[in-house]
Design brief:
Length: 216
């Protein structure tokens, strides 16, 4: 029986366009037998479509990419996909990775409380800097953006490959710590200080709750 992944990828502004390029790259470079991936992209990333897809396909893993708040995860044009006091039960029995600002603060613990297997995300804003590149390939090779997105998407890759929640979190943390060390031991400048402070912010605000031994 196939395992199922549902991905939301609204790609409607500069930040989410970068997430779009990176998740597409990750998914195109992973080939795992008996895994089906269903992606809601751009204007298809709505609450109605998300709920319908999750109810029909019953995924074991959900990957969110977009904006968020402490109690909600958003899709296309900031439309709410999941909200704590509305439809949180849609995440029951799922492993969730949320690359959505602040959603780990309230939603993560609330999701696990109502039955999610595990939730990986960020307690505060996920910060990153980019060079505002226009094409998918340019976004993937944006050396500034990669300092933030490579650690974040290493968690996604690790999840899909079947690492445990604790292993996923640890690998992503190690990636961020490595970036931070390289920045701090290099040539000091105002730009480096700003970048390092934001990498550190993501490092200390990445979180997980739930069953640390669970895996996709």
């Amino acid at each position: 029986m196939s395992r199922v992944i549902v991905v939301t990828n609204p790609s409607h502004d500069r930040a989410t366009n970068y997430l779009d390029a990176w998740i597409k790259h990750v998914l195109s470079n992973i080939s795992i037998p008996d895994v089906e991936i269903f992606e809601l992209t751009e204007s298809k990333a709505t609450k109605e479509n998300f709920e319908k897809l999750v109810n029909e396909k019953n995924p074991q893993l959900i990957l969110f990419h977009g904006h968020g708040s402490p109690d909600s995860i958003m899709g296309f044009n900031y439309g709410v996909l999941v909200k704590c006091d509305s439809n949180l039960e849609i995440l029951k029995d799922k492993i969730v990775h949320s690359l959505s600002c602040d959603s780990g603060k309230k939603m993560g613990p609330a999701a696990v409380k109502i039955g999610s297997v595990a939730f990986i995300g960020y307690k505060e804003e996920f910060k990153f800097i980019h060079l505002n590149k226009l094409t998918e390939q340019e976004r993937l090779t944006d050396g500034i953006a990669s300092l933030f997105l490579k650690p974040a998407f290493s968690a996604v890759t690790s999840l899909i490959k079947g690492d445990t929640i604790k292993e996923v979190y640890t690998k992503s943390q190690q990636e961020s710590a490595s970036v931070l060390r390289n920045l701090l031991t290099g040539v000091a400048s105002t730009n480096v200080t700003i970048i390092a402070s934001r990498v550190y912010h993501n490092l200390i605000n990445q979180m997980y709750v739930g069953n640390e031994n669970a895996k996709f």
